[in-house]
From TrEMBL:
Residues 1-25 are annotated as: Disordered. One of its GO terms (molecular function) is GTP binding. GO terms for cellular component: cytoplasm. SMART domains: AAA. Residues 74-247 form the AAA+ ATPase domain. CDD domains: MMAA-like (cd03114). The lineage of its organism: Bacteria, Pseudomonadati, Acidobacteriota, Terriglobia, Terriglobales. It comes from Candidatus Sulfuritelmatomonas gaucii. The gene is meaB. It holds the Pfam family MeaB. This is Methylmalonyl-CoA mutase accessory protein. Residues 1-10 have a biased composition (Basic and acidic residues). Belongs to the SIMIBI class G3E GTPase family. ArgK/MeaB subfamily.
Length: 353
């Protein structure tokens, strides 16, 4: 039945509650122009696109990344890790606010969150933890789902980083979940690696893996304020002492430790000056350029491995036999080596045909 309600010119009929409006699809050219002019909404849609598992989305996403590549590479990429409770997010917010207010620098935060094993979605949104920073027009904060990748590292963080650089973000901060293999993966996509710890919690270095300390360019002892200043200074001295035991870095940089406070802002300027000092050194001696070239090659090989694994898992013969062979291996009727060889032979034969 036709409604008796009339719509006045210039007024829109309200939409039904709970019904989200579909956004108009953007073309490849519209994505590129939006990103290059720093449009945060277009950038957010582009990052969503590169995180999509749909084949059509992936094709467009790869085109967008390729278009943005000539406009990327001009930022400082900083990886940030630390145990839960060390104050990573509050320190990132303090650093981001300093860069925007004092350095007039656009800041992108690619925060890697714990993700739901069922949905693959982000449980904890960092915009709720960085309220002041997220309100700034010069900041872009993106909590990304890990989608089951080891250590919680977001699958497309590297591509998102390139898009942010093309959008004019001069500082890219990549926060890890601080568990498993995420530190190593993030270290391999950034220029500078920052470890955040705190003092006054017993053995300050307890629980920090040797491997993480070896990756570190700077240890920042956070929460150096109030009655905790003395404990933070002791923790700084312990960390500095521990860093001396590791072999010299190929970059020519000597890792160091310092104290700071995201609450009072003490040490935040010095922290960033340390990052700039490292960047100047490694640009001058060629280490930064060599590292980024090596990262690009490593990323290519990782993408090949991922693509091959996806094709292998999707192969009909492999999918048909996988469950039965897994059961045979689990119950000891065959070896894992034999089962793997059988599956690989199935896949290889289909390619040859």
């Amino acid at each position: 039945m036709k409604s008796t309600l009339h719509e006045r010119p210039g007024c829109r009929t309200p939409e039904a509650p709970g019904v989200a409006r579909r956004q108009r699809p953007l073309s490849r050219e519209e994505y590129l122009s939006g990103i290059l002019r720093g449009d945060r909404s277009v950038l957010a849609r582009a990052v969503t696109l590169i995180e999509s598992a749909r084949e059509a989305d992936r094709e467009l996403a790869e085109q967008i990344v390729e278009d943005c590549l000539p406009h990327s590479g001009h930022s400082i990429r900083v990886g940030i890790t630390g145990a839960p409770g060390a104050g990573k997010s509050t320190l990132i917010e303090a650093l981001g606010r300093y860069l925007i207010a004092e350095q007039q620098q656009k800041v992108a935060v690619l925060a890697v969150d714990p993700s739901s094993q069922i949905s693959g979605g982000s449980i904890l949104g960092d915009k709720t933890r960085m309220t002041t920073l997220s309100a700034s027009e010069m900041a872009f904060i993106r909590p990304s789902p890990s989608k089951g990748i080891a250590g919680g590292v977001a699958q497309r963080t590297r591509e998102a980083m390139l898009l942010c650089e093309a959008a004019g973000y001069g500082a890219i901060l990549v926060e890890t979940v601080g568990v498993g293999q995420s530190e190593t993966a993030v270290h391999e996509m950034v220029d500078f690696f920052l470890l955040i710890t705190i003092g006054g919690a017993g053995d300050e270095l307890q629980g920090i893996k040797r491997g993480v300390m070896e990756l570190t360019d700077l240890v920042a002892v956070n929460k150096a304020d109030g009655t905790n200043i003395a404990a933070a200074e002791r923790a700084r001295a312990e960390a500095q002492n521990a860093l001396h035991y590791f072999p010299a870095a190929g970059s020519g940089w000597t890792p160091r430790a310092m104290t700071c406070s995201s609450l009072t802002g003490a040490g935040i300027r010095e922290l960033w000056e340390c990052v700039l000092e490292y960047t100047m050194l490694t640009k001058t001696n060629g280490w930064l350029a060599r590292t980024r070239r090596a990262q690009q090659k490593r990323w290519m090989h990782e993408m090949i491995e991922q693509a091959l694994r996806q094709r292998f898992d999707a192969h009909p013969a492999v999918r048909h036999s996988m469950e039965a062979l897994e059961k045979d291996v689990a119950e000891g009727r065959t070896t894992s080596f034999r089962a793997a060889r059988m599956l690989l032979e199935m896949y290889s034969q289909s390619i040859a045909e």
